[in-house]
Design a protein that fits this description.
This is TRAP-type mannitol/chloroaromatic compound transport system, substrate-binding protein. This protein has 14 helices and eleven strands. It is of the alpha/beta class. The chain has two domains: 204 residues, Bacterial extracellular solute-binding protein, family 7 (D-Maltodextrin-Binding Protein, domain 2, 3-Layer(aba) Sandwich), CATH 3.40.190; 101 residues, D-Maltodextrin-Binding Protein, domain 2 (3-Layer(aba) Sandwich).
Amino acid sequence: MDRRTFLSGASIAAATVATACGDSTSTNTQTGSPASPAILRGVKQLRMVTTWPANFPGLGTAANNVAAFANAASGGSLDVRVYAAGELVSAFEAFDAVSEGTADMYHGAEYYWQGKSQAFNFFTAVPMGMTASEIMGWVEFGGGQALWDELSAQFNIKPFQAGNSGHQMAGWFKREINTLEDFRGLRMRMPGLGGSVLRELGAAAVTLSGGEIYPALQSGAIDATEWVGPWNDLAFGFYREAPYYYGPGFHEPGSSLAVGINLDVWNGLEADHKAILKQACWAANNQCLAEFQYQNALALDVLVNQHGVQLRAFSDAIWDRIGTISEQVVADTGNSDAMTRRVFDSYLGARNAMRSWDRISEMPYMAQRERVLGG
């Protein structure tokens, strides 16, 4: 859905709001001019807390886009206000704030909440897991949304996909990683199940919010970090502290971002506001993935050709070991409790089904395109 289509649909929604409120020609008693739907009904204000720095490219702006789309589509009867990490609550307090009603909505990555349930990992990314298009397919058409709703409802939250950063890089390293032995003792920022894989490799995985990463890398508190990809990584300037950039990543092949809405708030919304928020999340989801795809390409060129970043790839031996560990870590996580097992079974079934299509579509096409077009 492009912005023009979305806003065209929004005008219909706004007209519906006016009809629901009474005669669309009602006037403002103070000015004598036609009253807007928002004035007739009153404005519904919603506070969205995020796990991102203010206006951070791609991640932070995806949250802003949800709010902007919803506010515009509602004709002013919705007023979603975005608060960056630390403005109302810290990044990792966003989930509890929404669950408890301190805030109305959050925008973040679901694997941050794995302490609540391991099942949340599957709704962001798991090692050797789904790509962006695959996770969208599972959630929207493969039963993922119903399971996600059931899981999140336990915490008084209604979830939606609302962004995807696409395939992520393996990360920035102060020294080269040539063998499995090079992981031993390595202190690396990597959250989620990717961090569990690192620990099995002998590294020390650390979870830090976005704003904490560069100072930790600069001070030597960590030796390496992953974040997202070239666009966001360039913005944070990691290349100044760690010259070796490894890719592709094994841990997040298509990282889905989410909006979570307090369930009491959601249930109290009128039908048109629910529809508008759902469409706003969809629009932001699609825009975010498209933006990352394009901006990563531009940023990679800057990193390599202007800042002298050295691109590296893990050896096949490292990939083989990562693959074996990843399969075990994800399976152990998937069997941690009954709810997570249901999510895991659904996720695995969808991933395996889509792999059969990928084998004869995108994978051979990309290989042939590179062979034909060359460097």
